[in-house]
Amino acid sequence: MTEQDGTPAGARDEEAAVEADRIEAEEIEADEESPEIAAAMAADAAQDAEAVEDSVQPKSAPEDRAERGPFDVAEVTGVRPYIDLGGVKILPRPDLHLRLEVEEATKRVVAVGLDYRGTTLQVQPFAAPRSSGLWHDIREQILQQLRRQGAKATPTTGAFGPEIFAEIPVTQEGKQGVRLARFIGVDGPRWFLRGVIAGTGATDAEAGAEIEELFRSIVVVRGSTPMPPRDLIPLTMPATASAAAQRPATA
Fold first, then answer.
1. What are phi and psi of 193, to 5 degrees?
2. Which residue among 24, 47, 49, 75 has the highest number of C-beta atoms inside a 10 angstrom radius?
């Protein structure tokens, strides 16, 4: 069996396995949560504080989600060299750099950052109802939160269905500027996967298509533990990388 570029599938998987080992062997970079994730988390917190019940909404997802992703772990067959981050699994590829975004107050991992060819994709998996979706409600709350923070936020439609395009005011090195970002979401079986695209892929069609394919390749691991809808599915550092980070340095 060969891939579309003619590379044998076994060789492609072997190369990816080497890349997975390399990423897991390193101490994966931890970073503060980005302005985009902070805005989305603020919308989540506002929803919790107001104790507003979600309306029953249909799931929002591409019709071919089960075939092309994002995937549920039960939909993945065969052995692939995924990087295991707890709530999500990431398939390594050349030029992909992985970060874990950490909430300063709690020190918990709140998002996975994927830097790929000039574009950043930040992802968060959440528990969700089995038969209804979250994205329609969450999208409206993010839209309101962005506008409260002074961002220009516009509902639009993309490859995964409804999304938000935002111009977010930021201060860098004492200068005012804006960050362009796309907020995307997909409802899966008992989970919801939220993504934020920033950088080149937020506005360039070709780069956007590449990062959308990366988003589709993500595998969500909901687990069997009961969780209320909207709870963040725990994200963790890969075991190998975590052990490396705790190992004392040697001379």
1. -115, 120
2. 24
Q: What six digits make up the tokens of 41? A: 């988390």
DSSP state of 159: T
Closest CA to 116 of 212, 194, 34: 212
Q: Where are the domains of the chain?
A: 9-246
pTM: 0.80
Q: Please say whether the beta carbons of 214 and 121 come within 8 A.
A: yes
Q: What is the pLDDT along the chain (251 residues), one digit of tens a residue?
A: 434 444 434 434 444 443 444 444 344 665 666 767 777 767 666 555 454 455 689 999 999 999 999 999 999 987 788 999 999 999 999 999 999 999 888 889 999 999 999 999 999 999 999 999 999 999 999 999 999 999 999 999 999 999 999 999 998 888 999 999 999 999 999 999 999 999 999 999 999 999 999 999 999 999 999 999 999 999 998 875 444 343 333 33
| Nearest CA among 235, 151, 236, 242 for reference residue 194 | 235
